[in-house]
Amino acid sequence: MPKERASRLREDRQRIQASIAAGVGDPSNYVNSEKNNKSLNENETSTLGMIQLIDSEDAIKRENACLTLAQVAFDEADLIIEKGFLQRLCYRLKDQNEHVRLAAFSALRNLSFAGEKVCKLMIDNQILPIIFENINQNYILLSNQIQNLPIEQIDFAYSLLTQTISLLLHISANFDEIITIVTNHQIAPILLKYISYKTPSQRELSVVTAQYLALITEENPDCCLQLRTPEIINQLKEFIINQNSDIQIKAILSNVVFSMCLNNTEKLQSIELFLPQLLQSLEQPTFLLISQLKDELENEKFSIKPFEEKFTLWMNNIDAQICVLELIADICTHFIDLENETNDQDMNLENEIDDNDENLTNENLINDDNNSHTQNYLPQILIDAFINSQLLNKVFDKSNLIPDNICNADWPDKVLVNDRINLLQSRALSCMNNLLIALPSQSIPLVSIYFNSFSQLCGQAIQKGLNDILQSATALMWTLLRNAKSSLTLNEDHIKAILHLTATSIYCEDIRSGAAAMLGIIGKMECAINYLPSIASILLQLLNENSALIIAEALNSIFDLFAENEYNELVKSSNMLNILKAFLPTLKQKVKTEKRSLEKQIWNRLDEARINLSRFLQYKNKQF
Hints:
The chain is mainly alpha-helical. Helix content is 69%, strand content 0%. Helix 28 (548-562) runs parallel beside helix 31 (600-623). The chain is globular and about 90 Å long.
């Protein structure tokens, strides 16, 4: 399953639903996706009564019923299912009237945002054959008869395809088997027809088509093989190198090309092809453009229509930057995973569980690779390209929090603007983290500036309740500490903030485990000498947590900090050894019982901690 891309799609669905709940429309600008104040529980005579006409003999009434369902779908998915309207919408996909079919696709597409449960019901109602038939029919129509078609019919076909492929995109993101079915139907080569557009109204189809191609080619050799014809490869390359091509679609299709490459040599050649142009898009200012739009609107320099056109261009520019950030992050992830897979083959990480741990010798603790950064994940050609383009600084500039004057601006689409900037920032933070992991530490400039900024970002995210930003900023602090600690200068505020993140139970597992891991490095720094008792206390308290990841990181930090003789007084005063001895049987049992339920990487971390705990206790017992 293409986990990263599917996860981002699910995140986008949640983001759109949150925007709608806040009172703005669906930012994808599809047909009939504006926020509507109607619900199925109010105004029975108008809303529910209109929906009941979905089976009317009058095509206009059937269409209006489907459109009403499209309008309430984001808020009332469960109720729509409960009242049986989802099945009736699926039936309307075969309606004789094309406008009813479009409205039904629009409603089902909006319903698909509700997630896996709803998409499964659609599949059970045999929606896939209808989707495939619709794609094939419109492909034939637009391929063979487009010269003779009126513009209205062409636009209608594009609208219908947009809804259809968007619906298929959301369904496929939830189920591996759907991607397999689509691959077997050889839909991907057909979709390539729609990556270019001639009018702004056709752009959404091009974007959603590129997104779908990126989804189904990721980790899917069979689909990539379908696209590896000279004609298709040349078509994609020509689109990507064309200066006039849409930058957002170009970035998405670059990911498709990257997925299609069979080996790293091909992948590097593809990166050389698309990287220079895409990096230029990150130079576009984010806040300056939106501030100018805001000032022009307030000064009434132009009417609403030109404003909307400029606003759409701004949104497209932001979306393009988001896609470029995702692509760079994915490139880094590929080479990081490749190196980690090689390391896993060289190391026997999956240790056999042996209750007879007292027979272990006093050898060194298992190396914790997460606490060092001595290897180069990226090929040198990429390292040079990223450094020469000052990529880190460009990505860093996108990671700052929204200024209050933008966040609180009283002007049209305020929530939508903030939503888009938040998404840009989130993608920039993820990209920054991957870059900091992948690049050699000596090539990372401004380490202390980065760390201070992300520490401040944590504080701002806590104040504003932005947990996703907090999680990303914490991960970046941990990455900088792990990879470039020799270049860092920390102060007491940094230490207090990390202690707070570790000890506070309301924060998620990733935040607290990352903070616990940071304590294992910070505790060795001179600035933390007075905080060691607090660090020891918090790390020992974390052993009471249920999370395997938090426990593993807490134990690793204890091993890193307190193995040396100089800390024996603190080990004794904190009753550390007795607490750890009492915890060892619990840890052994946890490793046994949770092997099947935990992700392999997390279980490996927990099992390493089990082995290291036995060795640590033996080693410390010899010191006392």
